[in-house]
Write a structure and sequence with these properties.
Elements: H1 2-5, H2 11-30, H3 47-80, H4 99-128, E1 137-144, E2 147-152, E3 157-160, E4 162-166, E5 176-182, E6 187-189, E7 198-200, E8 206-210, E9 216-221, E10 234-240, H5 242-253, H6 265-276, H7 279-282, E11 306-307, E12 312-313, H8 316-324, H9 342-352
Parallel strand pairs: 1-5, 4-10
Antiparallel strand pairs: 1-2, 2-3, 5-8, 6-7, 9-10, 11-12
Bound molecules: heme C and copper (II) ion (CU).
The site of copper (II) ion has 6 residues, from loops.
Length: 356
């Protein structure tokens, strides 16, 4: 009894819960506070996402009208024909076989379903049967547990986790067509402001396209449970002006100059450690003996803002932590902790920092 009476003050607790919920909503809607970070399906910047939003509103409007009509009739009947105190208990008159009524409630729903079907079929056609213009950018996306590989076959560029595409001017569209493959299990590509979800399935190439008409960073997430670190398999799409994109491509096409050619002794030592340990079995650095494909291509590691598929910002401290103990950032990631000396980790980090 005493406990019941000692008045628990719930107000602060409720405030904390509300604030947390709001913060979570906010974070998912606007990322780091910039509108372009938003992942809201309600603010599309690309034709497929735009068509999907239009279709959703159309379906919502029709079903909304049906809901309002049915709910009003229901409430009206429940109130009007409720049992009253002076009720004589007799059944109301039973009416059978009204052809008009039967026809109406068969034909009208059939028509509604046909309209919804045609509207959806039209959008599916617009998105899936879009023709690829000659100047489209082509990217092959390979889903891995738990990161994204991006290959630009026309441009000779290979990178990871951060997709760069040019903005597409509606007057002179330069869309990007993605071929979706998987190296292991099912993943799903979903950047809500750019397009709907498409799965990456082993041995079954899928495709999708985007034509973002605003520059900015658009975020997404692997949308198909693919293992322990599925939640840290984040998507980052950088939509750039054509000039910025071309500059990025040109930089990515370069081989990085060997660290041994630079004056930094630690980096040169780190390069030797890198090339004599298992790193090279899983990672590629173009122009060196490292040509593994199990992990991300590291040729231009430092051109990326994040490491480990968006799990951490790409800072020297995070890089060192990552190679020493990947599980500290991404428990269950498929990169093993390498068990080297502290000095070797310092050297390796110095080397990685030269991979511009
Ligand atoms: C058994 C294969 C394997 C070995 C060996 C390995 N890695 Fe990795 N590495 C991976 C995988 C897989 C990832 C991606 C992990 C993820 O994001 O889930 C990765 C990610 C990385 C990243 C982050 C890249 C990015 O852009 O996100 C760096 C840096 C890296 N490894 C460096 C190294 C270094 C240095 C060594 C050697 C000391 C090494 N790795 C050894 C498989 C390996
Ligand atoms: Cu995945």
């Amino acid at each position: 009894m005493e406990i019941l009476h000692s008045k628990l003050n719930w107000q602060p607790a409720i405030k904390v819960v509300a604030a947390t919920l709001l913060a979570a909503l906010n974070a998912s809607a606007v990322g780091q506070g910039q509108p372009s970070d938003s992942t809201s399906i309600l603010s599309p910047v690309s034709t497929p996402a735009d068509s999907i939003r239009g279709l959703s509103f159309f379906v919502l409007a029709i079903t909304g009208v049906i809901f309002v009509i049915v709910a009003s009739l229901l409430v009206y009947s429940a109130v009007k024909f409720r049992r009253r105190r002076n009720d004589d208990g007799r059944e109301p008159p039973q009416i059978y076989g009204s052809n008009q009524l039967e026809l109406a409630w068969t034909v009208i729903p059939v028509l509604i379903v046909v309209v919804l079907f045609l509207a959806a079929a039209r959008i599916i056609h617009v998105i899936q049967d879009a023709r690829k213009p000659a100047n489209a950018i082509e990217v092959t996306v390979v889903g891995h547990q738990f990161w994204w590989e991006y290959r630009y076959p026309q441009l000779g560029v290979v990178t990871a986790n951060e997709l760069h595409v040019p903005v597409s001017d509606p007057k002179d569209p330069t869309p990007t067509f993605l071929t979706l493959l998987s190296a292991d299990t099912d993943h799903s590509y979903w950047v809500p402001r750019l397009a709907g979800k498409t799965d990456l399935i082993p041995n079954h190439p899928n495709s999708m396209w985007i034509d973002p008409h605003e520059t900015g960073l658009y975020l997404g997430q692997c949308a198909q449970y693919c293992g322990t670190q599925h939640a840290k398999m984040l998507l980052r799409v950088y939509v750039q002006s054509r000039a910025d994109f071309d500059r990025w491509v040109e930089a990515e096409q370069q081989q990085s100059s060997p660290a041994s050619a630079q004056s930094d002794q630690a980096a040169a030592d780190g390069e030797r450690v890198f090339e004599t340990t298992a790193c090279i079995n899983c990672h590629a650095v173009r122009g060196t003996v490292a040509n593994g494909r199990f992990g991300p291509d590291l040729t231009h590691l430092m051109s990326r803002d994040t490491i480990a598929s968006g799990a951490a910002p790409n800072t020297p401290a995070n890089l060192r932590l990552w190679i020493q103990n990947p599980d500290a950032i991404k428990p269950g990631s498929l990169m093993p902790a390498m068990n080297l000396s502290d000095q070797d980790f310092d050297r390796l980090t110095a080397y990685l920092l030269t991979l511009h």
